[in-house]
């Protein structure tokens, strides 16, 4: 059982540091690069696959003797540690280092979405609605919104952890 908790700490930390490094690297490359990073980060399940791979490695290293509930604990603890890094990295970048980066990112995303709708010949009403939503997204993020977002992410992370436990259990058979 100690192995599970001892392995979750470096797994979550490594993933968190990797996210932080890529976030700041993408910010240094410019707003378009950072927007692309956020799009791919949202689209690709890299953290999920990394935690799944680590769980598989730990289970294999222990000769497939770990109960799947402990694998769920490992995955969830890894996600909790990752979420701490995720929140701190976003806070540091968007609130301390470059507060205007968030607004520029929202503007860029909104412009891309408007362009995509225009190319698809969407009704003007839909485009105006999207622009209005983009303006709403420019409002400063409150601490309550941050805490709610962290809570939502942890709920999703728990679901992903159960899925990882289930996958490992099926592979074990």
Helix content: over 70%
**Structural class designation:** mainly alpha
Low-confidence stretches: none
Number of helices: 7
Radius of gyration: 19 Å
Number of domains: 1
Mean pLDDT: 90
> Strand-residue fraction?
under 5%
Please identify the oligomeric state: single chain
The run of helices and strands is HHHHHHH
User: How far apart are the first and last residues' alpha carbons, in Å?
Assistant: 21 Å
Protein name: DUF4199 domain-containing protein
Keywords: Membrane, Transmembrane, Transmembrane helix
Transmembrane segments: 7-27, 39-58, 70-94
Pfam families: DUF4199
Protein model, in words:
It comes from Flavihumibacter fluminis. The protein is an all-alpha fold and 173 residues long. The protein has one domain. It is built from seven helices and no strands. It is elongated, with a radius of gyration of 19 Å. The two termini are 21 Å apart.
Structure at a glance:
The protein is mainly alpha-helical and 173 residues long. It has helices at residues 2-29, 31-43, 46-61, 68-97, 100-119, 124-137, 143-172. The chain contains seven helices and no strands.
Task: Itemize the secondary structure elements and their pairings.
Blueprint: H1 2-29, H2 31-43, H3 46-61, H4 68-97, H5 100-119, H6 124-137, H7 143-172
Helix pairs in contact: 1-2, 1-3, 1-4, 2-5, 3-4, 3-7, 4-7, 5-6
Keywords:
173 residues, mainly alpha, 0% strand
């Amino acid at each position: 059982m100690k192995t599970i908790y001892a392995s979750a700490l470096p797994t979550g930390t490594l993933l968190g540091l990797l996210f932080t490094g890529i976030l700041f690297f993408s910010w240094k490359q410019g707003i378009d690069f950072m927007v692309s990073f956020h799009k791919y980060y949202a689209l690709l399940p890299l953290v999920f696959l990394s935690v799944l791979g680590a769980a598989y490695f730990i289970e294999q290293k222990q000769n497939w003797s770990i109960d799947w509930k402990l694998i769920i604990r490992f995955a969830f603890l890894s996600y909790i540690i990752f979420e701490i890094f995720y929140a701190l990295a976003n806070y540091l970048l968007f609130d301390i280092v470059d507060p205007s980066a968030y607004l520029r990112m929202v503007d860029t995303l909104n412009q891309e979405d408007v362009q995509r709708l225009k190319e698809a010949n969407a009704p003007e009403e839909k485009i105006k609605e999207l622009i209005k939503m983009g303006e709403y997204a420019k409002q400063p993020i409150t601490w309550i919104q941050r805490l709610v977002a962290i809570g939502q992410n942890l709920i999703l992370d728990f679901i992903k952890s159960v899925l990882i436990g289930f996958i490992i259990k099926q592979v074990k058979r």
